[in-house]
Design goal:
heterodimer, A: 276 residues, alpha+beta, Alpha-Beta Plaits, three-stranded antiparallel beta sheet, 9 helices, 5 strands, B: 853 residues, alpha/beta, six-stranded mixed beta sheet, 35 strands, 19% strand
């Protein structure tokens, strides 16, 4: 120890004789001479007074009382993974990249989440929205979005940093996998599923709006013009009114989300193994 | 063998001495925040505060631009002695960026004065009224003076409740520079830069009041429909009146995100960039740059701050042309060409280093005489390794780093006047020079930073610039320069005419050059003029002017110092000088050095064609850079064994028997030598396994059984220091008479040509945004020649030789008759490739058959 510490170390064995006899302490075991004497200390005093009388008589089976009393209390064991108890609403689970009501992504690739991240778990690359490839309202979208769940400490600072509320946390906590690469989730793994009324990106913004209107929540769903634009370029898009519906689109997205799908498979297998 | 010579007194390329500040300057004593200080008379208060470590917020203030007082952010409280000597407070806060310190003044910044602090908060609130809150998507976010100073000197919340002023965004000022007007705080740094520094005004303030904005010469915005700015701008490839080689600097000095570059827009954030200092590989100025990279990918380059060289500016080529280093055609592994059963060349196949070096060594050993063509883009270390490899390993003087038109006269000039004479003329000398004569040099096109320095000298103290050239370029006009018109090939005659007492301009020029500190800058293009260098040397002798040689490429000066010339050894030693050979042989620990005169690039090419050279070792060389590319390609095809050290697949690697990949500048350390002879060392920016040329040559020498001893930068530097400069005899000056200019038959003209800064160059490929800012390629002829050829201004002109035809739109220019100027390597104007001709050659001119864009 470089600096002298005020706390007495166990090696400080020599006490002045004038001091009153100290209370026996656990560290007193160390008082034994380092060499030779391995016998019990000369004066052992138990800290608890041994019980006497009836208590003393029943003492050997007293522990069963604890067992018995707990048999009549509500059980706290959670039968995970057989039964999954929902996490609390504000639980910090896996991240999700949200969408606006018309299906455009909220993420603008600003990297503030990556900046805020104390574990350096997030990597983002921004790119230009072009008229042919409008992925988010405004000029910029996140082209690359990766979260490394080996590094993530689920502190939620990224969520606080996000200026468009694109990044939020779900209650999903089953994140495990056998490979390091498999723990890095890409953008397609993190993107929120499409909901009814949404049109899968890319497509133009709602006519006459700017990113401000989107941010204020004034866009409530895909418009005719947006549908027409998508119909012209991707006639068999599932999210069109005449398409197969958002469930089919989400199924397609799940296929693209390889990392998420692989992890879901692994977790399901592990759950199956753990199930009784 | 022991080293016979004494220890060298100088190193081969000595570093520049640290400039000392002048001591005998008048100072004034005053105080800032109660701290007594003194500063040279005329110092601005904001600058003096910086010296004391007191930070005053500012936007428009820039140390290299004239004070403007545009943003009003730097307000301070000032007390100054009045006429009665009593200290009195100035009634209002003063802008410290326009206020010169006076004796007895007491300045109180926001740190000690509540009034200054309140004033600054008020200004900041006004600036932020119309500034959009799009920091998350703004490129400047994270390195933004407005963002930072709004945090340090602004209010925590806004009181503004109205709707912010918005503009359509962004305006593309050029294909590279984008303008978001609503982010602009009208500090005018960009407009002041283009007015004061570059001299090519392309944006300016428009409108008044709340609508005041920066804009291009878009007639709709500026409200002068029908008018095109006169003289200040030329047409770029999009046909818009904007072309600046320095526009990228405005992006860097913009204190908000109003000016951004298309190449970097939305690519990254400052916090995930790693910055490494570097030196630009694009010209011989050795501009300091900052390379910003992320995960092994270079995302942008910024100007470094080096007052002795590039100040804080770089050209757009330095800034934006870096993608070539990671182009898809990068060669990552050694390649060896298979031989088919009948001995003809087969395909290149990837090989291990051991295999490839073995094949290269075996081939070189079997080839007999080998010539070395290293190209002009090498660092000093690589150039030295090539020079030593040729002499020690290959035992030949057939090595020439000049991948351009060249002459024996030029080599004599370089050996006599350039090699071993570093830092004789520097950028600082140009700042002082009363007159500068340019010969065969177009500073804006061939050395951008040199142009800015010359312009600074012209603007600050009316230096006179005179150019001997075929026409007055826009660059010369912006230098307020005088043209001594010379048809290509007659430059020597004009130079000889600059004598005292000569009539008109020539006599005036002689007078200018006779002044103390006058400088003659001669470009590499003078090599195409027989007698040109002889005439320049005579002129410098006659007038006493100082002389410097300004090549175009980054490696040329280093190659001269390192001995990459057939008859010149490192440090200006000559092959013909026995003492120099013995000195070097001792340093290199070899018995003797080859004494036979070496062959120049042209002769090596000829030798490879006629079979007198059995092998070629070629570095970064483009056949199209040499006077007749067809001959070079033929030589590469015919030569028995061809080894290529290249970064990317090229015409040479297509023909090579063994290709050894080498590292681009960003993946290795090294030293470029500027035209002044100043060493510019730079570190490795990216992690890489690619080897620099000198290491590859070292391993190749090992394979050939010779220890070259150049396996690391430290070893090369130790050897360069040991060799040192040469104080023995120098090469004799060239004495070549001028040729008679060729007779110009009707329908023909003499070709004048030089490279434009932005063209089809190999180091600019893959950067479309930059290519869009290039000047529109035009052919230039005089009105008389145009009339004779039957072409109107703007019409198509066909310039042809027996080899081919180049058709370009004509720009009728004030220049000598019977001369036609073409850009050397612009899109649609590959002069050497198409015409097999160079400056001074006769070409046919006629009206073009088809209209061209």
């Amino acid at each position: 120890m470089a600096e002298p510490s005020k706390k007495p170390t166990s090696r400080q064995v020599a006490r002045p004789a004038a001091e009153p006899a100290p209370k026996p302490q656990a560290q007193d075991v160390e008082k034994r001479s380092p060499v030779g004497d391995v016998g019990a200390p000369a004066s052992y005093e138990p800290l608890m007074k041994p019980a006497g009388g009836v208590r003393g008589f029943l003492a050997p089976v007293g522990g069963f009382g604890v067992t018995l009393s707990n048999m009549f209390r509500p059980t706290v064991t959670e039968e995970y993974p057989s039964e999954k108890v929902p996490a609390k609403p504000r639980y910090h689970g896996r991240h999700q990249l949200n969408r606006y009501a018309d299906g455009l992504e909220k993420c603008i690739g600003c990297e503030l989440c990556a900046w805020a991240c104390p574990a350096d778990a997030i990597y983002v690359e921004g790119a230009d929205n072009t008229p042919d490839n409008q992925r988010s309202p405004g000029e910029r979208y996140g082209a690359v979005y990766q979260i490394n769940y080996l590094r993530c400490i689920f502190c939620g600072l990224c969520i606080e940093a996000c200026p468009t509320r694109a990044l939020t946390m779900t209650n999903e906590y089953e994140l495990a996998g056998p490979t390091r690469a498999g723990m890095i989730w890409e953008k397609q793994d993190l993107l929120a599923p499409l909901r009814e009324g949404m049109l899968s990106a890319p497509h133009p913004m709602v006519e006459g709006t700017t990113d401000t209107e989107y941010y204020r929540g004034e866009v409530t769903g895909a418009t005719e013009a947006q549908q027409a634009w998508v119909r012209e370029r991707r006639p068999d898009d599932a999210t069109l009114p005449e398409g197969d519906g958002v469930d089919a689109a989400n199924a397609t997205q799940h296929e693209a989300a390889e990392t998420a799908a692989e992890m879901a498979r692994l977790v399901a297998a592990a759950n199956k193994q753990g199930r009784r | 063998m022991t080293i016979t010579s004494a220890n060298p007194t100088t190193s081969l390329v000595p570093a520049a001495p640290v400039p000392v500040a002048p001591t005998d300057v008048e100072t004034v004593a005053f105080s800032i925040d109660g701290i007594e200080t003194s500063a040279p008379k005329g110092t601005l208060v904001i600058r003096a505060a910086e010296e004391l470590g007191i930070q005053i917020p500012r936007f428009c203030d820039h140390p290299l631009l004239a004070p403007a007082g545009a943003c009003r952010q730097c307000l301070v409280e000032v007390w100054a002695p009045g006429r009665d000597g009593k200290l009195a407070k100035m009634p209002k806060p003063q802008a410290s960026c326009t206020l010169e310190a006076t004796p007895g003044m007491q300045v109180k910044t926001q740190h000690t004065s509540a009034e200054a602090d309140k004033a600054q908060h008020g200004v900041m609130e006004l600036l932020l009224i119309n500034h959009p809150l799009d920091c998350p998507v703004c490129d400047k976010g994270g390195e933004c003076p407005l963002q930072n100073q709004a945090m340090s000197n602004g209010r925590a919340s806004t009181r503004f409740v109205d709707v912010k002023r918005t503009f359509a965004k962004p305006i593309a000022i050029s294909t590279q520079i984008l303008l978001d007007r609503e982010r602009c705080i009208l500090c005018q740094r960009c407009t002041r830069f283009s007015e004061e520094i570059a001299g090519d005004v392309f944006i300016d303030l428009q409108k008044r009041g709340a609508n005041q904005q920066i804009g291009t010469f878009d007639t709709d915005v500026l409200g002068f429909a029908g008018d095109v700015p006169t003289g200040a701008s030329t047409l770029d490839t999009s046909g818009k009146p904007f072309a600046s080689y320095f526009s990228g600097n405005t992006v860097q000095i913009c204190p908000v995100g109003a000016l951004t570059s298309a190449a970097y827009r939305f690519r990254s954030r400052p916090f995930d960039l790693v910055s490494t200092p570097g030196v630009s590989e694009h010209d011989s100025n050795g501009s300091a740059i900052r390379i910003d990279h992320r995960r092994g990918v270079v995302l942008r380059r910024l100007a470094g701050d080096d007052p002795a060289v590039n100040q804080e500016w770089i050209s757009d080529k330095d800034r934006f042309a870096f993608t070539w280093q990671s182009a898809p055609d990068r060669i990552m592994t050694p390649l060896v060409r298979e031989r088919t059963d009948d001995g003809t060349r087969g395909e290149l196949v990837p090989a291990s280093w051991v295999e490839a070096l073995g094949a290269a060594a075996a081939g070189l050993r079997a080839a007999g005489a080998v010539g070395v063509l290293p190209g002009g883009r090498l660092t000093l270390e690589d150039a030295y390794a090539y020079a030593k490899f040729a002499r020690v390993v290959l035992g030949t003087n057939d090595v020439d780093g000049r991948a351009r038109p060249h002459s024996d006269e030029e080599e004599a000039f370089l050996a006599h006047r350039v090699a071993g004479r570093t830092l004789e003329v520097t950028f600082a000398d140009l700042d002082r020079a009363p007159a500068v004569l340019l010969v065969g040099l177009e500073p804006e096109e061939e050395a951008g930073i040199l142009f800015l320095r010359l312009r600074q000298a012209v603007v600050h103290h009316r230096a006179r610039v005179v150019s001997v050239a075929a026409l007055a370029s826009r660059g010369l006009e912006r230098l307020s320069g005088t043209l001594l018109a010379a048809a290509p090939g007659t430059e020597a005659e004009v130079l000889d005419g600059i004598v005292d007492g000569a009539s008109d301009q020539l006599g005036a020029t002689a007078e200018l050059l006779a002044a103390d500190d006058a400088v003659i800058l001669v470009g590499e293009r003078l090599a195409t003029v027989p007698g040109g260098f002889t005439a320049v040397l005579a002129l410098a002798e006659r007038t006493g002017a100082r002389l410097a040689w300004v090549p175009r490429r980054a490696g040329e000066r280093g190659a001269v110092e390192a001995g990459l010339l057939p008859n010149t050894l490192p440090g200006g030693r000559t092959v013909a000088d026995g003492a120099a050979r013995v000195d070097l042989a001792a340093a290199w620990d070899v018995g003797s050095l080859p004494s036979a005169p070496g062959r120049s690039t042209g002769e090596i090419v000829a030798g490879a064609r006629d079979g007198s050279l059995g092998g070629l070792l070629v570095g970064g060389l483009e056949p199209a850079d040499l006077p007749d590319p067809a001959l070079v390609r033929d030589a590469l095809d015919r030569v028995g064994f061809l080894v290529s050290l290249e970064v990317r697949a090229s015409e040479v690697t297509d023909r090579a028997d063994v290709v050894l990949p080498v590292a681009p500048p960003v993946e290795r350390g090294g030293t470029f030598v500027t035209w002044e002879g100043r060493p510019r060392p730079f570190p490795q920016a990216l992690v890489s396994h690619a080897l620099p040329d000198h290491r590859v040559l070292d391993r190749l020498a090992d394979e050939l059984g010779v220890v070259l001893g150049l396996g690391s930068l430290a070893e090369v530097h130790a050897e360069l220091d040991q060799i040192g400069g040469w104080d023995g005899a120098r090469a004799a000056a060239p004495a070549v008479g001028a040729d008679e200019p060729p007779a110009v038959a009707p329908g023909t003209a003499v070709l004048a040509t030089w490279h434009q800064l932005l063209d089809n160059g190999r180091l600019q490929s893959g950067e479309q945004h930059l290519a869009g800012t290039a000047k529109r390629p035009v052919a230039r002829i005089s009105a008389g020649t145009a009339a004779a050829a039957g072409v109107a201004d703007g019409g198509a002109l066909a310039v042809s030789t027996d080899a081919g035809t180049i058709t370009l739109p004509v720009a009728v220019t004030d220049m000598p008759d019977h001369v036609v100027w073409l850009p050397t390597n612009a899109p649609g104007s590959a002069v050497r490739d198409t015409l097999h001709a160079d400056a001074g050659d006769l070409v046919r001119v006629a009206a073009g058959s088809t209209e061209v864009a």
